[in-house]
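Troubleshooting entry. The earlier prediction with pyridoxal-5'-phosphate gave an output that would not parse, so I re-checked the input for stray whitespace and re-submitted. Clean input:
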Amino acid sequence: MNVPHPDDALAASLSAAGTDRIVYDLTGIERQFDALADELPGAHIRFALKACPEDEVLRALAERGAGFDAASPAEITQALRTGVAPARIHYGNTIKSDHDIAEAHRLSVRTFATDSVEDVRAIARHAPGSRVFCRLATSGDGALWGLNRKFGCAPDDAVRVLDTARAAGLTPAGLSVHVGSQQMTCEAWQQALDTLAETMAALAGRGIALDHVNLGGGLPALGYRDRRGNPLDPPLDKILTVLREGMDRLRGLTPSPLAFVVEPGRHLVADHGAVRAHVSRLTRRRQPDGTDVYWLYLSCGKFNGLYEMDQLTHRMVFPGHLDEREHVHAVVAGPTCDSDDAYGDGRHPVSVPASLTSGDPVWILSAGAYATSYMTQGFNGIRPLPCVCVRGQEGHD
Ligand SMILES: *Cc1c(COP(=O)(O)O)cnc(C)c1O
């Protein structure tokens, strides 16, 4: 549900808010979790907590049965605060120092992502006896954020990495992929599943039988718009079908039971968080080429909640102007002195009510993912947005 119904908890909280904030609908997040668990039976859901590191959200997910994909000792500590067992937390970042590994081990985490022999040797020394899963590289094609090049290795290198792990006294437990964040195509998943199958066969040839496959993140949110303001409309149902079929196929490749892990980040939280911001100013300026351009400056932008505005735009609701007939095309931008702080590179105007004035509230929808984690501390003196969680009919203020 990317469009808040006027009487739901999110809309109620947004309309009651007198000042800027980000609001999460815990009930919506829980429903999203349940829906994914129904769609992918047999897959363990490990929420990638960087997408929304808010204690209340993490606690709600943990109570529903989620575990966590953590990327640092601080994230592990935050995940443990929910009361979840350390066995439901894995260290999913391939990049970690000796100190990070030792800290994770001290915090009782025993499962680590890796993609290099150097990292495996460090895990063997600082987290002896642990389970490792090797991340395979993907192209990132079809995703809004590819996550390629920096992570993952080729299938033959994964065999070398897991062989090294076994020789070093670790358990070569699994393989992982990440098809790129907000992945829009089924083909990317198909390709990742092919690479997993190929690598599993090569590992079997070395006498290594995995006990799990981690399909990573990348599942899309449904409420985003592209840079020009058109709905993105990802084929979620088809993607889930490809995943179910792929899981069956991989299960058929090993005689021993194969468990699956998924690490959704944005898919669980994006459409259930919204920002209440306000209009700073609607202006019209003549450009050096003689054309007039409208700019709508909001109190919230790239540095205080809408970090992903380089690739996408959000649906906006101006609650005081719902019946307004007269609209203008305006480039929408945040409040700072940085020219990157603008939607669509500052090049794609969208339709906004013509009579917007300073102070008018605006609701920015499907803004729940990577919002609080990417907020700067005080760029141009702008403080991070306060975060409010609502549930049912509570949370009005
Ligand atoms: C960020 C991240 C995720 C979550 O990605 P989404 O695209 O938000 O689902 C999952 N796994 C790993 C290893 C990540 O780094």
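This one parsed fine. Residues 47 and 68 are 5 Å apart (CA to CA).
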